[in-house]
Specification:
single chain, alpha/beta, Rossmann fold, two-stranded antiparallel ribbon, 19 helices, Alpha/beta hydrolase, signal, hydrolase activity
């Protein structure tokens, strides 16, 4: 599922900095306002209730080293297999920004994905990851989950092969048996490369194992309970933690939630409908501007957009670097911009350029989503880790009746994206069967868990946040009325006050609080 919005938005700003647009620098913009942190109290590891076989892990003393901009970094060791701790170890990369005021403990942050680097999220854009009030009161902790980035990582393809996989043209008519066979063969080659190059970790790249890693980080840092802020997929990680360790889940905020009961097929359909809604909102706004490449009423603009997408599908457009802009890549670029209304001007520029025969800005959008650098390399392994987690977490659903029903839902609720959305499930050829289940998470015995949902969030639709808050035995729903993915630290003082008051003081927001 596509839940990499915050990372993609930061990269988007960088990727388009050289284009003739009014660039907005969102990442790292608050560093100049953040005072130099005061030394934090060194706490002994918390080993309360830890089984004897796990004591060597929980009793680690982290060796922190300075790593720039008020940050210090360390690695801790975790079991490869939590069910068999003697079956080898992995390394988890941690970055810490010490509280600028009086620290009241650690705050772990996850940006989503699965596959997003929490290390980079905190190290590169602290003020984007959390607000100033949290920076003052907490040691903000970014970490790369197992399989990701600087931690023991999934590795699949080199940059050239990754380009072929993500951007290559399939020379078969769409939605034919030949097209499906070509995609399945490509997915199988990708999966084989992941198995060959990941040194045996693929069966253990699961959200359950990552949640156990997160409790290990909590214990090693010396916190008796967990303070946590998770965005997008990070909400599923946080909810899973609460399911496993309810007595330690005392101050959790889950922003832009995933509904743990929803199947993989349902995720795809619901997200497509969310992006369709966001596209309509974008076009309605675009039509009020002089720069908009479309004219007329909203439905006319939508018809013209669909015609442009169909034209690119019939005749892919060559980019200056030799890559071909296909309909699939164009959809990726459009979706990357629809995550946030801040990106709408870039989408306008990209669509205008495509209409003029220039695909470069649309590629910049797609590249921001795929973590591809302008020099052709990849900034991280997020696409590879994304696949590894999802293929282990989501049961494969390949019944024809279910597929037909999903396609009917797509055509009804996302008619613009429906022709380009469905494809053979790449997890059908993953080397290991999934172990995850889709079921409600209630977390009895946890503290209150605050769930933030945005009404027109395209990537994690609002109904998922409402559903998760309802499932949790002590769930509290905070609603941000607006556009874009996630709600905290996005300009709503109402949401920010609710989240920060809860994490700092334990003040539980009113359930159902609605921030207009």
């Amino acid at each position: 599922m596509t839940a990499r919005a915050r990372r993609a938005l930061r990269r988007l700003m960088t990727a388009l900095a050289g284009v003739a647009v009014a660039s907005v620098a969102l990442s790292g913009c608050l560093y100049a306002q953040i005072p130099e942190p005061a030394p934090s109290e060194t706490r002994s590891p918390d080993v309360t209730g830890v089984p004897a076989e796990l004591l060597p892990y929980y009793s680690q003393q982290p060796a922190w080293t300075a790593c720039g901009a008020g940050m210090d970094c360390t690695d801790i060791t975790a079991p490869l297999d939590w069910d068999d701790p003697g079956n080898g170890d992995i390394s988890l990369a941690i970055v810490r920004h010490r509280a600028s005021g009086q620290a009241q403990g650690s705050l772990l942050v996850n940006p989503g994905g699965p596959g997003g680097s929490g290390y980079d999220f905190v190290a590169d854009s602290l003020g984007f990851a959390v607000g100033a009030a949290l920076i003052e009161r907490f040691d903000v902790i970014g970490f790369d989950p197992r399989g990701v980035g600087r931690s023991t990582a999934v590795s699949c393809l080199d940059a050239t092969s990754m380009d072929d996989y993500l951007y290559g043209v399939v020379d078969e008519p769409r939605n034919t048996p030949q097209w499906e066979a070509a995609l399945t063969a490509r997915d199988a080659s990708f999966a084989d490369a992941c198995e060959a190059n990941s040194h045996g970790i693929l069966p253990y790249i699961t959200t359950v194992n990552s949640a156990r890693d997160m409790d290990l980080i909590r214990g090693v840092l010396g916190d008796r309970t967990l303070n946590y802020l998770g965005y997008s997929y990070g909400t599923f990680l946080g909810a899973t933690y609460a399911k496993l360790y309810p007595e330690r889940a005392q101050r959790l905020v889950l922003d832009g939630a995933i509904d743990p009961t929803v199947s993989g097929l349902e995720v795809g359909v619901t997200q497509a409908a969310g992006f369709e809604s966001a596209l309509r909102a974008y076009l309605a706004d675009c039509l009020t501007t002089r720069e908009c490449p479309f004219n007329g009423a909203l439905d006319e603009a939508l018809t013209d957009f669909r015609a442009l997408l169909a034209s690119v599908s019939r005749a892919p457009m060559r980019n200056g670097d030799g890559r071909m802009l296909t309909a699939d890549t164009m959809v990726t670029g459009v979706i990357a911009a629809l995550y946030s209304a801040d990106s709408w001007p870039y989408l306008t520029q990209a669509l205008t350029a495509v209409l003029q025969g220039d695909s470069s800005v649309m590629f910049a959008l797609a590249d921001s989503y795929n973590a591809r650098n302008p020099d052709g390399g990849y900034a991280d392994n997020s696409a590879e880790a994304f696949r590894a987690y999802n293929c282990m977490d989501y049961p494969v659903e390949d019944g024809q009746a279910e597929l037909d029903a999903a396609q009917a839902q797509l055509e009804a609720h996302a008619p613009t994206f429906a022709p380009y959305w469905q494809a053979p499930d790449p997890c059908e050829v993953w080397p290991y069967p999934p172990v995850g289940v889709r079921e409600a998470i209630t977390a009895p015995g946890s503290g209150p868990i605050v769930v933030v949902g945005t009404t027109n969030d395209p990537a994690t639709p609002y109904e998922w946040s409402a559903s998760l808050a309802d499932q949790l035995e002590d769930g509290v729903l905070v609603t941000r009325v607006g556009e874009g993915h996630t709600g905290y630290n996005k300009g709503s003082g109402c949401v920010d006050s609710a989240v920060e008051g809860f994490l700092i003081d334990g003040t539980v927001p009113q359930d159902g609080l609605r921030c207009e």
